[in-house]
Amino acid sequence: MLGRKLLVAFVLALGLSVSAVHADSYFYGVGNDEAWYGSHEIWMELEDLPEWHINRCASWANRRGWDTSASIYTDIQGYASSLEAGDVFLFSYMGHGGWDWPDANSDEGSTSRPDSNDPTPPNPPPYTGDESIGRSGDSSTYWMRDDQLADAFADFDSGVEVVVISGACHSGGLVGGSSDIDYSVPAGNDGLYAMLGAPEHGTSVGYYAGYSETFGDYYRPLLSEALLATLEPNISFPEWYDAAMTHGETQTHETNVPWQEENLFLEFWPESEWVPTTQEETWYTDHWGWQESYAQLRPIEYNSLDSSHDHLVGTPEPTSTSLVILVLLGVSAKLRRRKQS
Ligand SMILES: [Ca+2]
Ligand SMILES: [Ca+2]
Ligand SMILES: [Ca+2]
């Protein structure tokens, strides 16, 4: 009888402990225009890992960036109002990006924009003009500015970890301005991590990766190519970035883009310690800067995670659920021994 009561108590404890450690990972992916499948591919890799579940995934092909009723902006606001401390929110955007919008609140400063893909720009970012993502179709109406992205993130509870993966041109400019996401609530609470496909003045390259009847040709940004090649269980987000950067430094890549007649085999981006030669400093302004040596400038990382964050992308750490089960097995073994003696 005592054993039965203990069992009931432990089952109750088990239920309580599950709710106490409840924390979920949410994936919100958008692929726009030529990169319509780009974020969904990231999800296809993640979904095999235990903390990700299709019930917590939303994946869009062509979703406008800015609209007051249905857009990336309002979707993120929805996550911001419902996620709780401990949850992980991964926002993946693959599509076009801009960097020369009039900056009404001047949060980007007054440093003039350098030439695109200049390997040695005369000044560090931020550069004048707001960055943007979310173009969908031919209209530019639906671009979302970086200030608006930060506004959407501002409603998250502290303790929600936000991860941003963006393959867009000029993604590096999503951080750096004083109204950008690195000043939003998640970043202010050591909970924002971002992998951004190009520096603020850099364009991001996507190469031909497939075709569908519905959406037509599709291009995969080099950042997502490297991320897809390097995801493993038990890897943290910063480790995943490092592995992807090494992949891009060491693997050659067939360009296969429509604006170039002859395909070239190039490394994705330079090494982190790279110093351009005199010849390499003569950049090209068409499409990307480094036809002779590299496909694009190196993606950048933004990390405000402190040691209490830094979630794993893969298998989560053991929770108290498994510990309680072990205790339960130990107690029932003890009761059995007592009964026998
Ligand atoms: Ca601004
Ligand atoms: Ca800017
Ligand atoms: Ca910016």
Can you describe this structure?
This protein has helices spanning 2-20, 38-46, 72-82, 146-153, 185-188, 222-230, 237-250, 320-340; strands at 25-31, 57-61, 88-94, 97-101, 130-133, 144-145, 161-166, 192-196, 206-212, 216-221, 252-254, 265-267, 300-303. Helix content is 28%, strand content 19%. The two termini are 17 Å apart. Helix 1 (2-20) packs antiparallel against helix 8, helix 3 (72-82) runs parallel beside helix 4 (146-153) and helix 6 packs across helix 7 (237-250). The model is unreliable at 6-21 and 317-341 (pLDDT under 50). It has 8 helices and 13 strands. The strands form 4 sheets. Strands 2-1-3-7-8-13 form a 6-stranded mixed sheet, sandwiched between helices. A 3-stranded antiparallel sheet has the order 4-5-6. It has a two-stranded antiparallel sheet with strand order 9-10. Strand 7 (161-166), helix 5 and strand 8 (192-196) form a beta-alpha-beta unit. The protein is α/β, with parallel strands linked by helices and 341 residues long. The protein has a single domain (23-316), classed as Rossmann fold, CATH 3.40.50.1460. Bound molecules: calcium ion (3 copies). One calcium ion (CA) binds next to loops.
User: What share of residues is helical?
Assistant: 25-40%
Number of strands: 13
Kindly identify the CATH topology. Answer: Rossmann fold
Content-based structural category: alpha/beta
Low-pLDDT windows of residues = 6-21, 317-341
Strand line-up of the largest beta sheet: 2-1-3-7-8-13
CATH architecture: 3-Layer(aba) Sandwich
Q: What is the domain tally?
A: 1
What is the average of the pLDDT values?
83
What's the tally of helices?
8
Elements, N to C (H/E): HEHEHEEEEHEHEEEHHEEEH
